[in-house]
Amino acid sequence: MQLSKRINWDDPDTLLFARIGYYGAQVLVMAMAYMLMHLIKKRNDSRPLRYVPQAAPSLTNPSPAESEAVTTTNVEYDVAEVKKFIQSTLSSILMISVMHWYFKFTQPLVLQSVLPIKNLLTHKVALIHLWGDAPEGDLKRPFKTESPFAALMGGAGASDTPAETSEATPAVDDGHAKKE
Predict the structure, then answer these.
(1) Out of 28-42, 93-107, 154-168, least confident range
(2) pLDDT tops 80 at residue 143
(3) Which of 26, 59, 60, 80 is the most buried (most CB within 10 A)?
């Protein structure tokens, strides 16, 4: 973002190149996402996957009810995850376009030309299928939902383990306890 503050955004040529770069990067990301879906379907990992989808907590329903178990295959699950990524990318394109064309913000074009490419290449499905990482640990299906606002909403989803340490830890007396 510091670089984008030094750019002369009043120059029409600079603005044109920024727009071409932004929309070109978005087309590249969408093409790469569809190629990733093609690669997933080509590998055809049809091992069954059974899981209970996590319902995302919201402000109106902080502790959602349990969902029914879903039985699918790794191919269908991975394709669905890439489709979610495509949906979020399209939402981002719409939001940045509105910010740029309606509200005349130009600086987000620079950052958003790079971020979607980075997000696709570091997506859990891409790590498995493009980079050849084993689906173990954080990459084990079903993927854990990561919420950057989980800590603000009471810590729901902030832990990677389903059974958080709910046991009360005994207080340790370090000699600095307040004396009454």
Answers:
(1) 154-168
(2) yes
(3) 26
